[in-house]
Design brief:
The structure is a homodimer.
Chain A (H helix, E strand, L loop, with lengths): L1 E11 L4 E10 L2 E6 L8 E4 L4 E4 L1 E6 L8 H8 L4 E6 L2 H7 L1 H9 L7 E6 L17 H4 L8 E7 L2 H5 L3 H12 L3 E4 L6 H9 L4 E2 L5 H9 L3 E5 L22 E4 L5 H7 L2 H10 L4 H8 L1 H6 L16 E4 L7 E6 L2 E5 L2 E2 L9 H7 L20 E9 L6 E9 L12 E7 L8 E7 L7 E4 L8 E5 L2 H14 L2 E6 L2 E7 L11 H17 L6 H6 L10 E3 L2 E3 L5 E2 L5
Parallel strand pairs in A: 1-4, 1-5, 6-7, 7-8, 8-9, 9-10, 11-12, 12-13, 18-21
Antiparallel strand pairs in A: 1-2, 2-3, 5-14, 14-15, 15-16, 16-17, 18-19, 20-21, 20-23, 22-23, 22-24, 24-25, 26-27, 27-28
Chain lengths: 561, 561
């Protein structure tokens, strides 16, 4: 079957220009580029002088953050022109270890979205044993055999690299031995420490928040992944990377993207639209979202329109809105003018599926678990949250335990708890948090970075228990409760992280959760903020199942006296 | 041992700019780039604001054309700033097969010049069985294990690729399976044939002679290697490739470079000097001779000055003359201001060495072998040579065999003979050639592309026999004889292709040969021209041990009637 795409303005990655040419597709590949006799082809598609471009590649994404299965994610992303993503299954690996990675690989097999994987390098990221699994180098090694495994995922444990930690060095050595890519995660790292980190073999960074930082990392040999996700947005600050020569060593990623945000703003196409509105050169933008990521991850047949490359192609109406009117995957038109062709759902081994659907290993909790034993006014370490920031402040406040057992909605002070959901240990810790804006009720979630224990936040023990127990009973998810009533609930039965529902229903459930939070008095994205309160690597003060942690990742007492 | 190079203008490949920085070297690698406390270093070298650049890389060279051993080539090239070369041992493989490749690998082990190899893909390049060896895919396969083997060398048998010849396809498949590079050789190839050639996996071309050809190949995904050697010179015609964006997909190579030319004009540094004089951007020129070739051949630690890269660095006085004042290899200063440090000669397995030194498998020849049996005036096919061209013309001339047995120096007509030197078959053929300008005596050579049989050219049988027998006795080389006297002789005892002498002596012997040729009446580079007269793939008419060949690679009769 030969398909000829005629009257195209083809994005040529090698000259970073648009060429008026035709493309001949055969056997899922590009057979030729130039001028052809239409008689040669079985099918001729007139592209009406629109732009033909390789499919977009998201250079770094945690699929779990979308709460979608790879199948649903493909349904969501293909109409936006994305044909390949580089996923780090860090979250599900923290819950289910090797099974989590294997599940993601199986459940993305054969999709018309190429789902590549980087192997989670930091499970867990800290010495605090709070996760569902520990992945050593020997646990990751077998996965390199898989053709869609492209390397070692973001090495966020920077001290382990700088201190030549043997486990971390073994993981890096394995990646090198497999000629694989090694992703970094090094916010603000500079000078000799950055040199040492790069010398160890780390090749990319998606944590740059300023142009000068990105420039200096590029000059030292790194590839910069401009992150524009739901939570962290660096596009505006890094817009100069779209200029030559920086555009040659930069690409685009979403890192974390929520399903409702995806629905609303699109995927890579939406980021390009924003970038061009900010003044970016649109051809550089195409290069950075197609050819460049393919180079970083050594996808030798992706990212360009030339003989021998995979026929993963998209048609853009223009280079302003980046509206996608057609998508070809492996040479076949899979999407056109709003209609996505059906494709098969990947099959997952049933025993594996069973494991992933039963990730809640804990008993129901009693409301009393969410009660402090303290009386009177005591000084306590309170987590100080600021809207829009993952950094917290260690607030030492006078807490009146005789009034609402320490909670004070007027003072924006509510309880927060983290409960072990992996080992049925009954271990949990209770603290206070300031700044969430929650006036009533409780929220609970099994999405709680990076260990993904059960986290709950609320004004009263009864609602906190109901929200938590709903998730324990239903296998995980996000739940909002007020006055003993469930206001909204998004089931995430796969590892407590991923929905078994469609993209559309999952996005709707998210919107309902947002409404519920509004009803409970807060205008914030509370589930996202709450999910980061258990991540000790981001300072100053966080909460784990062992209790509060400080900057040095030490467990500290709740009472500050 | 920590070495700090201070006060440098560092060529930064990632931004294609010069940065005022210092570089810290440790364990042969670059440990850091930026500002450092000199106290940290064991040795501080002040570069006096000169340009520090990665060592130059020759992207494609046949070492045999230099007639030097890799050791002598290293001595010759390092002072010119070359620290890595990508060699195709095509010539020696045509003579000695696997042994030839193995010899080149062993004899370049541990040199301060990194000698990488591409595996000869076309031994022989034609179905005419004229070479000393045949290399099938299964013969090449074991070599991929060697760390300095980077891929499959120039696939010059274009029809084999286009016709999906199983042996050729197996060689290409092996290269792909080893994640190795595949070099091309496709002069003038365009349109669907070029598409098919590229689709098969061919990645480079060093045969472009015009900018438009190079541009079109780049747009189709190829890397272009601008060849500027002793014989073929394409720099002038391809100078626009130094412009953005072409400079991102182009690099520099010499292909064939003679030792006297090397001595006179330098190596890559000399080509950069020429390029800049022709208007090339000097920073692009640096990129194309360092970073770009490292990318093509996946030398992950070469071609840039950044943490983790090999400390193969050169100091340039300026970006006009490209004079090299210092060379650091693996972090050690190996060359400075005209003085090259001694380094060890690689050891070659003695049995292997023995084989290579005895490549002449033939008996002495009698003067009568160079005599035609014809009488009177007959029409004959004469090879029509034009100075500076490898293309020949099929001249059908009236030859008077009663006058000097067909030779006529006045009419620029001399004899040419090719004798099997590989199989002791006694097979040889005799013809006539026009246009060499040889008035007296004879030349003989064991350098005769691609089969490297014994080739001789001359005005009389006695001198042709003496020149030939001198080479047979001495194990090969280049020889000039007049009136029964040897005027000049360059022994090439290694495979009949490579000198066992020093770079300096070999260059001198070449100069003496040139003088001898002048004495014999010709102003041309006759040995080089003669060496191509046995290469049937370049039309129109050539001579093999089987006789004359035409465009279709068929053997034709000498007499044209």
């Amino acid at each position: 079957m030969k398909t000829l795409l005629t009257n195209a303005k083809i994005f040529n990655a090698f000259s970073c220009s648009l060429l008026d040419q035709s493309v001949l597709l055969e056997d899922g590949m590009i057979a030729g580029v130039g001028e052809f006799d239409p008689q040669l082809a079985d099918l001729v598609v007139d592209l009406e002088h629109k732009i033909l471009c390789p499919g977009f590649i998201d250079a770094h994404i945690h699929i779990e953050s979308t709460t979608l299965t790879p199948y649903e994610l493909a349904r969501a992303q293909i109409p936006f022109g994305t044909t390949a993503i580089v996923a780090d299954p860090h979250e599900i690996a923290n819950v289910c270890g090797q099974d989590g990675i294997e599940f993601m690989i199986q459940s993305s097999q054969g999709l018309p979205l190429d789902v590549y994987f980087m192997l989670p390098s930091c499970v867990p990221a800290t010495p605090i044993k709070d996760s569902g699994a520990v992945l050593r180098a020997s646990d990751l090694r077998p996965f390199y055999k898989h053709e869609r495994v492209l390397g070692l995922a973001e090495v966020m444990n920077v001290p382990a690299v700088l201190n030549n930690d043997p486990e971390m060095m073994a993981k890096i050595a394995d990646a090198k031995a497999n000629n694989a890519a090694i992703d970094g995660h090094s916010p603000m790292l500079s000078g000799p420490d950055l040199d040492a980190y790069i010398k160890a073999g780390i090749q990319t960074d998606h944590e740059c928040a300023a142009f000068e930082e990105a420039k200096s990392k590029i000059e030292k040999g790194m590839f910069i992944q401009i992150r524009q996700g739901t939570a962290a947005k660096n596009l505006n600050d890094l817009i100069r990377l779209f200029e030559y020569p920086w555009c040659l060593r930069s690409c685009i990623c979403t890192d974390d993207k929520h399903p409702d945000d995806l629905k609303k703003t699109g995927h890579i196409n939406g980021i390009l639209k924003e970038a061009v509105a900010l003044g970016a050169d649109p051809l550089h933008a195409l290069l950075m979202s197609t050819w460049n990521p393919a180079q970083i991850y050594k996808m030798t047949k992706k990212g360009a329109i030339a003989p021998g490359y995979d026929a993963d192609l998209i048609v853009l109406d223009d280079l302003k809105d980046f509206h996608v009117s057609k998508v070809f995957k492996n040479g076949k038109e899979i999407y056109s003018s709003g209609v996505l062709q059906d494709f098969e759902k990947p099959k997952v081994d049933s025993a594996l599926q069973e494991k992933l659907f039963h990730s809640m290993n804990m008993s129901f909790v009693e409301p009393d678990s969410f009660r402090f034993d303290h009386q009177g006014v005591r000084k306590a370490h309170v987590i100080g949250h600021s809207t829009g920031s993952l950094l917290t402040e260690d607030l030492i406040l006078d807490v009146d335990f005789d009034f609402m057992n320490g909670v004070n909605p007027e003072k924006d002070l509510v309880k927060i708890a983290v409960m072990d959901r992996h080992h049925n240990s009954g271990r949990m810790s209770l603290g206070l948090i300031h700044g969430m804006g929650l006036k009533e009720g409780a929220l609970a979630s099994t999405v709680a970075h990076d260990s993904h224990n059960l986290i709950a936040m609320g004004t009263n023990p009864a609602d906190m228990a109901l929200a938590s127990n709903t998730l324990i009973e239903r296998g995980g998810g996000l739940c909002a409760v007020k006055d003993g009533q469930i206001l909204a609930f998004l089931p995430l039965p796969i590892g407590g992280l991923i929905s078994a529902e469609t993209y559309e229903k999952t996005a709707e459930a998210n919107e309902e959760l947002t409404k519920a939070i509004h009803e409970m008095g807060s205008g914030q994205e509370l589930f996202m903020s709450m999910a980061f309160m258990s991540l000790p690597v981001i300072p100053s003060i966080k909460i784990t199942t062992y209790g509060l942690t400080n900057d040095q990742l030490e467990i500290i007492d709740f009472l500050a006296e």
